[in-house]
Amino acid sequence: MLCDALAFADAELPDLIVDFATLTGAARVALGPELPALFGNDDGVVSELARVAAAEHDPLWPMPLWTGYEDELASKIADLNNVAASAMAGAIFGALFLKRFVGDATPWVHVDLYAWNSKDRPGRSIGAEAQGLRGIYRYLVQRYGTLQAPRTG
Predict the structure, then answer these.
(1) Cα separation of 25 and 86, whole Å?
(2) Which of 12, 5, 20 shows the shortest CA–CA distance to 111?
(3) Spatial CB neighbours of 88, under 8 Å, sequence gap ≥ 6
């Protein structure tokens, strides 16, 4: 379903596509529950987004879209596998799979996150957590300007 949404969004030729997913579990194993993995097809966007998110105290950790692994998603019976035979690099394989549904001309970022707090922290209680949203919001405001609420009435 996420792949269909990415392809549909890309067809609209947006300035940027952002997706959030608890996709693989591998990102949580690599980075722990408090640090979402950040993948993207535009190094400038990824770098700036990571910088802005860190300043917002909502960190995102840049991860590589290592193209050397793309052949692991090849299939003999389908256009593409959604997993690799290897048990390693699961978060990268997941992001490489999603990347296939976004054109090269569209800047795209994928946040692979846990979205759960297992301990109380100031402003972030135990339970569901909006990881990355504060950082993404601040990045969008900096990129596009102040967001205006729609007029009513």
Answers:
(1) 15
(2) 20
(3) none
Phi then psi dihedrals of residue 140, to 5 deg: -65, -40
Tell me which DSSP letter residue 151 carries.
P
Convert the pLDDT of each residue in 58-81 to its tens digit. 999 999 999 888 887 777 877 776
Task: Say how far apart CA 55 and CA 106 lie, in whole Å.
Answer: 26
Angle at 5 between CA 91 and CA 149, to 5 degrees: 105
Q: What are the helix (H) ranges across the chain?
A: 2-11, 26-31, 43-55, 90-99, 133-144
Residue 92: both structure tokens together? 């990268």
- Look up residue 10 and give its amino acid: D
What average pLDDT does range 134-147 have in this prediction?
91
CA-based radius of gyration for the chain: 16
Torsion of CA 109, 135, 25, 19, to 10 degrees: -30
pTM: 0.86
- pLDDT of the residue at 50: 98
Q: Is the pLDDT of residue 140 over 70?
A: yes
C-alpha span between 41 and 136 (Å, rounded): 16
